[in-house]
Each structure stands twice: as C-alpha cells, then as structure tokens.
Structure to design on (219 residues):
C-alpha cells in the first residue's frame, strides 16, 4: 500500500467523520426544536442543509477517485463501498433533519398536544441510534452496530403507538387534525432516521466481516 493511498484513505475517513458530526448536530437541533418548542433551532437546521449536501458530493467524488487511481481490493475495497453507502445515508439523514425541523416549526406554532409527551423518549432513542451507528463506524465496532440493529424495532413500536394515540386524538377533537398530522409526520421522520442509522450499522458489519446482513436475522 503506497503512502499516497494511505493518505487518501485517511483524508476520506476524516471527511466522513466530519459529515457524520455535522449531521448528528443537525439531528440534535431538529429534535430539540421539536421537544423544547424552539423554532429558532429549526431555522438553523434548514440553513445548514446546503453544507451537508456539498460535503456529500465532495466525499462521493473522493471515493470514486480513490477507486480509479488505486484499484483497492479486500478490506480497503469494502471500506470504500461502505463509505459510499454511509455517505449517502448521512445526506439522507440531513434531509430528514430538515423535514423534522419544518414540522417542528408548525408544531411550535400550535397548541401542545397531550399525546406529544411520548416524543422525548422516541427522540432519545433515535439520537442514541445515530450516535451508536457513527461510533460503530469510527471504531469498526461490531457490538455497537448490533445494538443499533436491535434498537430499531423499539423505535418502530414507538412510532406505531404514537400513530394510534394521534388517531384517537383526531377522533375526539377534529379541530386538532392539522396539528396531529404534523406530529405524525415528525414521528415518521424520526422512524426513518432510525432506519438509516440501522443501514449504517449493517454497513459496518459488512465492512468488518465481508457479509451482507440486510434482511437476515442477527447472527
């Protein structure tokens, strides 16, 4: 392995981690906007999305250049394939953070719904999954990746329970339908963020073991 190749891989890893940190911060602000009713944080998330998009494009170009110039094999090739996939998932997480922030702004402008008291627990769990998936990526930690995979069902259950609660609230008080729909959209964005964290965890297992674990029971 040449020094040039090593340097390119290290620069790629550093760029991927910077993107991960930026996306994690966007998710933190978007969820804080939702839970703490902070529309100012929602605006910060929306304003920061272009930088995430630009970073995603730059990283994809870097991956492709490394593949073309160095023709990596084995573990190095798996890392680059993983980097391409994780890069895309992080950008999609950034988009979901924007979607969540936009819903949070609408929610902040309306009276609180009692059923929204379940949001903080769901938010905490999703944040843990995002952080856990990035930690697993940084350290190629299979156990951390497995914990993220195991947590996905819990977030799905929270989303379904909130849907049932919102459905009941709309039946009891049709005047809250618009507000309830914003809450349901926010819950869906959180659930999708958890799915993308799961994707990253699966990619970490692929990078570590060379096995595709999607759609299979945990070994």
């Amino acid at each position: 392995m040449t020094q040039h190749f090593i340097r390119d891989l290290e620069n790629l890893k550093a760029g991927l981690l910077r993107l991960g940190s930026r996306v994690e911060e966007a998710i933190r602000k978007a969820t804080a906007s939702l839970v703490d009713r902070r529309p100012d944080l929602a605006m910060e998330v929306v304003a920061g999305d272009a930088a995430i998009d630009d970073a995603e494009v730059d990283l994809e170009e870097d991956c492709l250049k490394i593949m073309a110039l160095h023709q990596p094999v084995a573990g190095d090739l798996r890392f680059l394939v993983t980097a391409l996939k994780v890069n895309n998932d992080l950008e999609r997480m950034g988009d979901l953070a924007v979607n969540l922030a936009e819903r949070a702004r609408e929610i902040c402008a309306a009276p609180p719904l009692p059923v929204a008291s379940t949001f903080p627990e769901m938010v905490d769990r999703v944040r843990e999954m995002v952080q856990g998936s990035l930690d697993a990526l940084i350290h190629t930690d299979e156990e951390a990746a497995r914990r993220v995979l195991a947590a996905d069902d819990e977030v799905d259950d929270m989303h379904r329970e909130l849907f049932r609660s919102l459905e009941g609230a709309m039946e009891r008080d049709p005047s809250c339908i618009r507000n309830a729909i914003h809450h349901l959209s926010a819950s869906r964005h959180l659930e999708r963020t958890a799915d993308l964290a799961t994707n990253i965890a699966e990619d970490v297992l692929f990078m570590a073991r060379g096995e595709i674990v999607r759609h299979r029971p945990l070994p």
